[in-house]
Amino acid sequence: MLTHQGFNSKYLYGILFFLYALSCSGQTITYEEMVENAIINSPKLKIGQTDVNIEQTNLEILNSSFYPQITAVYATEYTKNLDEKSQNVSVGEINVNSNTQYDNSLALKLNYELYDFGATNEKIKVGKQEVAVKEIGICLEEIRLKEDILNYYTKALNYFIDMTIYKEVRSIKKQIYDYKTRLQQAGMNSNIVVLNEAISLIDLENQIEQAKNDYFINLLTLSKLSYTNLDLNAVQLVPLKFENSNNVLDDIKYENTSFAKQYQIKITQKQNEINALKFSKYPVVSFTSNYYYYGSDQNNFETSYKELKRNNWNSGFNLRWNIFDGFKTNGELKKLEFEKIRLFYEYELAQKEFEVEISTQIQNINQHKQILTNELQSSQISYEIVDSNNLLREEGAIDVIVQLESKIDKLNKEASTKKTTNNYNYDNTLLKIKAMKDSECLLHNKNTTNGCK
Questions:
Q1: CATH of residue 338
Q2: How many distinct helices (H) and strands (E) make up the chain?
Q3: Residue at 77 is within a domain
Q4: Which of 9, 143, 303, 380 has the least CB density, counted as fewest CB within 10 Å?
Q5: Minimal CA–CA distance to 267: which of 351, 330, 352, 341?
Q6: Which residue range forms the structural domain that includes residue 43?
Q7: What's the CA gap between 321 and 120, in Å, rounded?
């Protein structure tokens, strides 16, 4: 079983402590809210639901095979005899009526397939499984949508941290630049030192603009994916919730995931297609019955219509058997068998890819957990260094540049810790999404049929 060690509670407190606070002003939104909006409004999910409705309608059409078919046929015609000596004759499939008259007929026909060796039942199963496949498809699309939103959401969080920290660092570096300028004017610094500091400030401005641009690009993508109107200058993304994936790992098995279930249904469906085709080679027994009305008159159509009355009825049983079709059915059976084998190979390939993804994800979780542990410790030390430098500065033991640079170091470590926290929560959330079962999909649960359960 793939697993990783649980997060120590003291580190959890550290994570929670470093989750930056959000202002109550402006537009705030969570990852969960974006996902909910996306699921409600996504055209792809709506297309998926329409596909389910189409297959459910096809299933209703297949179920009609269990009912008798009743039709009514009305016919009227006029026959003019051109040879008075001729008589009614039949040649092959042609019947020659030698009477001059108007004819009207009404036939009520009933046809009911009584037994087909289970071919229809197998087709019904295939239809139910197609509904289930489409429902699983909705779930898989929901999973992809959650993964995409999670990816851009985490990137936006991290770019916002960069942008915020860079601005704070810029404020401190301006103080350093001013101090170094005064030192240079006093002849205690070279002009090169001041120029290097100016270049550093310019580079920092570029970093701020780049982080801001990347932040806005990810917000725009999130707005598109989640169908949420975001004010780029006012929106505040709520940090991801801490997700402990230990409980997920204890139960994670490929065969339980939505990815696997789709293949499982397709394999069973393919076997039912094979069965239906095999059974179609056997005879079909049907019951038929006809009830006829007939009326005629030699001179007047209206009279012939009024003369329409019960004439006769018949009923009986038919056996239809396609004895030889030039090996067409055998060829189609071979094709279906190969398609079934291919599905097994696809299942195995998908399972291997899934296991690699899960292993990679667990490795990322463990790595970020260790990095976060180290960064929390490093960040705590940086706080102590700043406090110590503040005291030393008050005592005149260090200059202001050393004091300010320690503050910059502290800010950088804060930013790194926050981003690693986001990445850690991203990894755990992503693992939970990948391990989703079809029963956990929101939209899919509203439309589940017996074919999927």
A1: 1.20.1600.10
A2: 11, 8
A3: no
A4: 9
A5: 341
A6: 9-69+117-285+327-452
A7: 15
Q: What per-residue confidence (pLDDT) applies to 13?
A: 45
Fill in the amino acid letter for 39: I
- Other Cβ atoms closer than 10 A to 253: 11
DSSP calls for 151-218: HHHHHHHHHHHHHHHHHHHHHHHHHHHHHHHHHHHTTSS-HHHHHHHHHHHHHHHHHHHHHHHHHHHH
At a CB cut-off of 8 Å and minimum separation 6, what does 246 contact? 3, 4, 6
Tokens for 341, please give them. Answer: 């084998």
State the burial class of residue 58 (Cβ atoms within 10 Å of its Cβ: 0-12, 13-18, 19+). Answer: middle
Considering its fold, how many domains does the chain have in total? Answer: 1
Distances (CA, A) of 45 to 156, 436, 442: 25, 17, 11
Look up residue 261 and give its two tokens: 């279930």
**197 within 8 A of 180, measured Cβ to Cβ:** yes
Tokens of 214: 């990347």
Task: Please enumerate in sequence order all residues whose Cβ is within 8 A of that of 175, keeping only pairs 6 or more positions apart, or say none.
Answer: 400, 404
Q: Is residue 366 included in any domain, yes or no? A: yes
Any domain includes 322: no
pLDDT of residue 279: 92
pLDDT at residue number 244:
66
Low-confidence ranges of the chain (pLDDT < 50): 1-25, 448-453
Q: Is residue 335 domain-resident?
A: yes
Q: How far is CA 31 from the centre of its chain?
A: 17
DSSP state of 20: -
Spatial separation of the C-alpha atoms in residues 190 and 181, rounded to whole Å: 9
